[in-house]
Specification:
With about 240 residues, the chain is mostly helical. The chain is built from 10 helices and no strands. Helix 1 crosses helix 2 and helix 8 runs antiparallel to helix 10. It starts with 19 loop residues before the first helix and ends in a 5-residue tail after the last helix.
Length: about 240
Amino acid sequence: MARQATAEKRQRRERGSINPDDIINGAFELAEQVGIDNLSMPLLGKHLGVGVTSIYWYFRKKDELLNAMTDRALRQYVFATPYVEARDWRETLRNHARTMRKTFVGNPILCDLILIRSALSPRAAKLGVQEVEKAIASLVEAGLSPEEAFDTYSAVSVHVRGSVVLQRLREKNMAANEGPADIEDTMTIDAESTPLLALVTEKGHHIGAADERNFEFGLECILGHAERLIEAHKKGAKKTAPRKR
């Protein structure tokens, strides 16, 4: 069942004793208890032990508070995500993708703020763009064209985010007891009418599930395509290189 939107009441603070950082910290604490969807200004006031007007003094509406939370979450996320390095691009990009997924899957609040809500302030958006620029520059140095590097990193990013969001929505549906958890839950698979599907799913494969197996398969497909592009560029460079006299 979904968690009820309740907050433990603290001893009331003195007027003017709270600041924006206190409010943001408290909002993260409360979101861990009730989730981002159920976070509200009155609940936060109760959690912090202040009148709701003290919160509105700094954040006029919930969206402003969520923007501040997202800014902080994005900075923490960028700091925790490893760089892509040109000299070992495939392994570092793979590690980059795996860490992104692990970070978001392990922190539902981070997922809800950055991936599902997707509302960033100009400062946070600039930070995100700078990190993407670094990754693309490394892939160009590794041998991809700027367009290929962009498409490769974009494909990895979409793959990671899609996998995480699907898993997060599955968790939300299960918590609220709303709808099927996976595509397989809506399908009838039996050995007589769908022998191949039955054979494979019996071995632990899942159709359309955001699980580790499907994530790794998709990631390796993207990395393999990028590696073939780099090899093609190397062969082309050798053919066009001037012969020594």
